[in-house]
Design a protein that fits this description.
Elements (H helix, E strand, L loop, with lengths): L2 H21 L9 E5 L4 E5 L2 H11 L2 E7 L10 E6 L13 E2 L6 E3 L5 E4 L6 E4 L5 E6 L3 E7 L2 E2 L13 E4 L1
Parallel strand pairs: 1-4
Antiparallel strand pairs: 1-2, 3-4, 3-8, 5-12, 6-7, 8-11, 9-10, 9-12
């Protein structure tokens, strides 16, 4: 291959690589606004909080909790809103509001692949509509337990920063 052909081939390759880099979605474009509906046992993620809110409205979802894996509700790394079709009560039968293993609940990446699990990644939480969420240190509601209500922008103050492995909402 002549020198000019090699340079032309390299130039074409550099342009192609540069085009891929430009076309790649930025980290801020990730589908990081996720919803998990306990009543439907289904979750999905969106590219904007507005799209998430529209979907929840279409489902007529009652919000239970809003968890973020950064303190002060910083949405840089991901948001998960959990809700369902019925209100929170102190009833004994709340099986529909339990997540025994947060290692099985994952954020979704823009390409649809599985991202990080919710396990040991909850840094702040807001609890809505009179609900109480109990975070457990272990899978299957084992280990230390910590109940939460209202707005809690930094779980490290109570020693439960990035510790939850299962949760129960009443």
């Amino acid at each position: 291959m002549a020198f000019r052909e090699v340079v032309a081939a390299l130039s074409t390759s550099v342009v192609a690589v540069a085009a891929l880099v430009v076309a790649a979605p930025s980290a801020s474009a990730a589908a990081k606004y996720c919803n998990y509906n306990l009543s439907a046992d289904a979750g999905e993620c969106f590219y904007s909080h507005h799209a998430l809110a529209q979907r929840k409205a279409a489902l007529a979802q009652v919000d239970y909790i809003h968890v973020v894996n950064w303190v002060n509700y910083n949405t840089g790394a991901g948001v998960l809103e959990i809700g369902g079709s019925s209100a929170c009560t102190l009833a004994i039968d709340n099986e529909g509001k339990k997540l025994p293993d947060l290692t099985k609940l994952r954020y979704r990446l823009p390409d649809g692949s599985a991202g990080a699990t919710l396990n040991n990644s909850i840094s702040s939480v807001k609890v809505y509509n009179g609900c109480v969420v109990q975070f457990f240190d272990g899978v299957g509601y084992s280990g230390a337990v910590s109940p939460w209500t209202g707005a809690n922008p930094d779980l490290s103050y109570m020693g439960f920063y990035d510790r939850a492995s299962s949760l129960d909402i009443t």
